Amino acid sequence: MRVSDILSDDRIVLQTEGRSLEDVLTTLxxxxxxxxxxxxxxxLVAELVSGVGEVFRVGEETVLVAAQTELVDELCGxxxxxxxxxxxxxxxxxxxxxxxxxxxxxxxxxxxxxxxxIPAITRALRDRKLEDQLTGATRPEQAFALTNLMxxxxxxxxxxxxxxxxxxxxxxxDTPLPEIIDLxxxxxxxxxxxxxxxxxxxxxxxxxxxxxxxxxxxxxxxVEGTVADAAEEPTARDVMSRTxxxxxxxQSLLEAANILVNRDLEQIPVVREGxxxxxxxxxxxxxxxxxxESSMPD
Length: 298
Hints:
Blueprint: E1 12-16, H1 21-31, H2 38-49, E2 54-57, E3 62-68, E4 76-90, E5 93-106, H3 111-114, H4 117-124, H5 128-136, H6 140-144, H7 147-150, E6 165-166, H8 177-186, E7 191-195, E8 201-206, H9 207-219, H10 236-239, E9 247-248, H11 253-262, E10 267-272, E11 275-281, H12 282-290
Parallel strand pairs: 1-4, 3-5, 9-10
Antiparallel strand pairs: 2-3, 4-5, 6-11, 7-8, 10-11
Helix pairs in contact: 1-2, 11-12
């Protein structure tokens, strides 16, 4: 997919009289029917005006506004050139006087655009001559003729979030091992996280960990119903692996895949601000890397 693939004549607005970024975004969303028209476009306008997008400076006179919205099904874009410079607040920088506004909408997180798409567009717009041609354009076909920009490849990077399997089960340090084994067997759970009072990750118990603690009993001839008192049963605290590798939702899925392979893991816990939110496992990573268009895991 290239920049030219996400634009159309009605999504290129040239020499607009908008006096603010909000004015320009409103024009792009409505004239280009970016959300499908009607009420959906109005909902999109409300989202954009409320500041849902992130603003990046990608050229001397160009900003890129990237926004996540459920109102689009795939990456789409629009381009505006203002008749006069507009003062625009930019992500991580001082406000800039800009005339070119490129709007990118994605159903996924904006983080998927940061690694490849935004840097690629920034590299193209280092050519000041290209910006001058954009600001001087009066017809959409003149913008489409700027191949250095229109041919930029657009590829949203897969994130850990895209492969996240939401957390359904957790145990606490004092949970007896028999309860944990029963949960793992009945629910066909490969691993159970052990969490603290604030759901912070303390450790993890895998099927292998549980088997290690069962084997001595079988060697001693213990069978179900003849084990010692529950007070003597090991707990999650006794069994869990305390040294675990975690990843965050915003990390590249390729990074997570490398961890799975290099550490010979079946799955990795995913944390958000220290709280466990789910897992990424080999099967889902394989499916998404081989077929990026696959749907999110259930």
